[in-house]
Specification:
Structural class: alpha+beta
Distance between the termini: 51 Å
Largest sheet: 7 strands, mixed
Strand content: 15-25%
Radius of gyration: 24 Å
Number of helices: 14
Shape: globular
Helix content: 25-40%
């Protein structure tokens, strides 16, 4: 069957088979084929489990890490590291964005510090070039001559490893899954979780899905399910005409399907009210990393003004650093630092002078500013432009395009600009256009609540990566994926296969295929644009009970009218409409969670105009939401629930009791 739009568009390229059922059974079902999903699948398969991975994109390149990775965080157990996992967790607990300060998750962060290097060794075994095996950086200050490992940012503690061949890392994951016989279903969108007896809150026994290409329906039966679908992104910003409509570090396919599925099944969510100033390349901004700067991938590049005058670097105490080398080393008495916007004095990294904007206004420095790669030591220059830019996610295209155009880092500089510093003195290049405060659409945001087994409140449902609340980066996704696999394998040894409830399946088929029964109405682009406008207007930077309730009213109105009239002409458009349904559900959850937090919070970037007191002690807690028999249940947990009793059980003790190595 071919489908056209009745005009001059070419025929739809795939056969369409709406309603055709495909039933697949496995031990462990992994929803999401990104970094966490691949590590989960590989490690479960190595332990003898039958594993099936479902992803609505091409698994060989899907997910936020699909385009590559330049640095591997938290490798505290590597032979060169001068900081232990125990020391690192204490430093992080004092204040870092990965742990989200007092609202972060110590479980996944500690797993990162304990298993990050082991996960990287796995990656190396799968064929990725991790070390400087060809001695391209021999003699560099950041290279260990014995192990040939190269390090980023902190050259003293050596806890962050540069991945020399990071651009092809996802391909290696894919090939290893094929070698192990992992069953993979590319281009299939998971739409719902199947629960025992079809009950909300029941044990998860599988999922349903629909083919992105053919529209066929899938019933996946599993003893255990690992949710790795990533963060919910793009809820506040959408434009099909202007580039950069989603967060710069997130796969555009990260819609929030997993969050919506888990919510409907009765899973407990937390921290979904968290907001942040989003780093997004939108409107007329430049693509991420395409302009010179001095942060993250470009750290710690020399910056000069239009007259070639160098902008000073300072350490955490404000002491001017005279050499490039000093930018990568500790201040006196410092144990380690992160190249992140850290609030903690203990882990603050060297940075550009905090009063740069004022000194520009006074005429001391003249705009525009430039990243002065040619003045950098050769090893540092080639590490930034080549090893980092070129392997960081989404930068390989920039590296190759600029190279073909004649850009030479030995001779040329790239222009940059800075916004006023944030409260931590961090400057951002102007491609990081800051929009209004929004839900944290990236590492550190809201998601599924879980325990030390990475299990949710639903039996048989585990979580890894940024699908869980306060999720982190590539290395954390890898570490939690391999950890969750071990727990799921142990679970399925004693679990029986559940029998999917036919009524639940039929209801889901009606919901999924409703848009293709209509030939006109509201298109997916219009629907999504309307949803983002509601989030902007009623759940923006400043919140109140009145605006949030108005927002919920508007979302319900859209659900009953525009969403109910949405149509799709082919499976591709059908999936886009279903994604809007997921966004609609996620938006409702965000607003309801925002209503329940009746206090402002600096740590969460959360501003309630009707509750202006900031971070009162009684509100330093996690608020949880879940559905039970269709009604919302609100709960709470101490922010340090991951310790059996506050300050009584150590991270090491909890980890040792649960890790199952």
């Amino acid at each position: 069957m071919s489908v056209t739009d009745g005009g001059n568009a070419p025929a739809y390229p795939y056969p369409v088979a709406y309603g055709k059922e495909n039933e697949v059974e496995t031990d462990i079902l992994v929803l999401g084929g990104g970094v966490a999903g691949c590590h989960a699948a590989i490690n479960a398969a190595k332990r003898g489990a039958r594993v099936l991975v479902v992803d609505k994109g091409p698994i060989i390149r899907s997910g936020s890490g699909g385009a590559g990775v330049d640095h591997w965080h938290g490798a505290c157990t590597n032979p060169c590291s001068k900081v232990t996992p125990e020391e690192m967790i204490e430093l992080t607990l004092h204040g870092d964005y990965l742990l989200n300060w007092e609202f972060g998750n110590g479980i996944t962060t500690y797993i990162l510090f304990k298993e990050s290097y082991d996960a990287l060794l796995d990656v190396e075994q799968w064929g990725v070039k991790v070390r400087d095996v060809y001695d391209e950086f021999k003699g560099a200050e950041f290279r260990d001559e014995k192990t040939k490992l190269t390090f980023a940012y902190d050259y003293d503690a050596c806890h962050c490893i540069r991945v020399v061949g990071g651009a092809g890392i996802k391909v290696a994951y894919y090939n290893e899954m094929r070698r192990l016989g992992v069953e993979m279903h590319d281009f299939v969108m998971a739409t719902s979780l199947l629960t025992e007896g079809g009950r909300q809150g029941g044990r998860v026994i599988g999922a349903t899905g629909v083919s992105v290409r053919t529209g066929e329906f899938y019933i996946f039966k599993a003893k255990a399910t690992i949710m790795t679908t990533g963060v919910t992104a793009g809820m506040w910003i959408f434009s099909t005409e202007l580039q950069g409509s989603a967060a710069s570090h997130s796969d555009p396919n990260n819609i929030g399907d997993g969050t919506a599925m888990a919510w409907q099944a009765g899973a407990e969510l937390t921290l979904v009210e968290k907001a942040s100033l989003m780093q997004v390349a939108r409107g007329f901004a430049y693509p991420p990393y395409s302009t010179g700067n001095a942060h993250n991938t470009w750290y710690a590049c020399t910056m000069v003004d239009a007259n070639g005058k160098e902008i000073p670097w300072v350490d955490r105490d404000g002491r001017v650093l005279e050499t490039v080398s000093e930018r990568y080393h500790h201040a006196p008495g410092q144990k380690a630092f992160f190249n992140t916007p850290a609030v903690s004095y203990e882990i603050q990294c060297p940075r550009l002078i905090a009063d740069l904007p004022e000194r520009i206004k006074k005429g001391e420095f003249v705009l525009p500013l430039y990243a002065d790669l040619p003045s950098m030591p050769e090893h540092e220059r080639r590490a930034i432009w080549g090893l980092m830019v070129g392997h960081e996610g989404k930068t390989h295209i920039l590296y190759t395009t600029y190279g073909k155009a004649g850009f030479d880092p030995d001779k040329d500089m790239l222009m940059t600009n800075v916004m006023p510093p944030d409260r931590y003195g961090i400057f951002y290049p102007y491609w990081n256009t800051m929009g209004p405060r929004q839900w944290r659409e990236g590492p550190g945001g809201g998601g599924l609540f879980f325990d030390w087994d990475l299990q949710t409140n639903l039996g048989g449902l585990y979580v890894a990566g940024t699908a869980g609340y306060a999720g982190g980066n590539h290395a954390q996704a890898a570490s939690t994926g391999r950890y969750a696999a071990r727990k799921a394998v142990e679970y399925v040894k004693n679990a029986e296969s559940g029998r999917p409830d036919r009524e639940q399946i039929e209801k889901e088929k009606i919901r999924v295929y409703a848009p293709v029964t209509r030939s006109e109405g509201v298109g997916w682009k219009e629907l999504r644009a309307g949803l983002t406008r509601i989030m902007q207007d009623y759940c923006g930077e400043y919140k109140s009970e009145e605006t949030l309730k108005m927002g919920l009213t508007w979302l319900e109105s859209i659900r009953e009218s525009e969403a109910a009239r949405a149509y799709a002409r082919n499976p591709h458009e059908l999936v886009r409409v279903l994604e809007c349904y997921s966004r609609l559900t996620a938006g409702e959850v965000v607003m309801r969670a925002s209503l329940e937090r009746r206090a402002s919070s600096d740590s969460l970037g959360f501003i309630r105009l009707d509750y202006p007191e900031t971070d009162p002690p009684e509100w330093t807690k996690l608020i949880t939401l879940r559905l039970e028999d269709g009604d919302m249940r609100v709960g709470e947990h101490p922010v340090d629930y991951y310790l059996k009793a506050p300050n009584a059980a150590s991270f090491e003790e909890n980890y040792r009791q649960h890790c199952d190595l």
